[in-house]
Amino acid sequence: MDQLDLQQYNVRTDLALEAREIASETNGHSKFEGISEEREELDGITVTHMHVENEQGAKSIGKMVGRYVTIEVPELRDHDSELQNKVANCFAQHFSSFLERLSIDKAASVLIVGLGNWHVTPDALGPLVVENVLVTRHLFELMPESVAPGYRSVSAVAPGVLGVTGIESSEVVQGIVERSKPDLIIAIDALASRALERVNTTIQIADIGIHPGSGIGNKRRGLTKEILGVPVIAIGIPTVVYASTIVSNAFQMMRNHMEQHNGNTDQLFGVMNQMPEEETLQLVREVLHPLGHDLLVTPKEVDQFIEDIANVLANGLNAALHEAIDQNNVSAYTH
């Protein structure tokens, strides 16, 4: 059985797609028992459907059993409003399939949780989405007669981060769930990628829940059905890459380039030429953080990127959750 422990290699990625890529590179093949994968491309949008079917598949790539949908749109960095609307529509359609698979009724109530820190731009994705989604629970509670057909009860909260509030996000959410009793939780968080080209251009949807702080290596109490007693759909977008990962990848690309043109790179790279990728990454990490710290890297235009992608998610969620909103004109409903 193929097994890959990502912790062994210190590979920091929250994307199931990248975890499978790492497993493929390590094992020398792309097919794994217990994992099915389909890919489709349309108008510059690549959608990958991955189903980790059992524990064997989970151990192969180091991810939990569940379904993952990854939407990749490299051109999102161009601030093209028409493309953003297409992505929001695509996201709404695929998110709706998760609702159907979980048998979430059109009248079921939803709690949207925006994880992250308002004051740190790459980590502000969740709160920004919460600011832009259409919330209706108060209308259903206070004046239900005024709610038009085609809308459902939606509430939203940005619980902050442990370092600011002193309270775990899961504890805040658990208290809200016990009082408001939603039928579904949607958790949104910033992630980490191993590839700079996927930063702020990739959306991952998963039915496995989420762990706050996972994007920067934290392992804390998560938001899952097992903990909260309610189905949890996780939405994540990579907003950072570790500097050690960038340097390691650059070294591998340079070595591959020299091999194509020279053939023998031992004289140029010496002992590093014989080191496996995971050992190279570990060496780079040790060099980059002599004080015990690694660097998180994000594009300099992160302010605009985060605002754009948060609007894409908010528009898509509005369309997927409220039947009255036309998925072909999702941008009209951001407030």
UniProtKB/TrEMBL annotation:
The keyword Methyltransferase does not apply. GO terms for molecular function: hydrolase activity. Autoproteolytically processed. The inactive tetrameric zymogen termed p46 autoprocesses to a smaller form termed p41, which is active only during spore germination. HAMAP family: Germination_prot. Keywords: Hydrolase, Membrane, Protease, Transmembrane, Transmembrane helix, Zymogen. SUPFAM superfamilies: HybD-like. Homotetramer. Residues 1-14 form a propeptide. It comes from the Bacteria. It comes from Paenibacillus yanchengensis. The chain crosses the membrane at residues 228-251. This is Germination protease. Pfam families: Peptidase_A25 (PF03418). Belongs to the peptidase A25 family. Gene3D superfamilies: HybD-like (3.40.50.1450). The gene is gpr. InterPro entries: Pept_HybD-like_dom_sf (IPR023430), Peptidase_A25 (IPR005080). Its EC number is 3.4.24.78. Initiates the rapid degradation of small, acid-soluble proteins during spore germination. It is an enzyme of class 3 (hydrolase). It catalyses: Endopeptidase action with P4 Glu or Asp, P1 preferably Glu > Asp, P1' hydrophobic and P2' Ala.
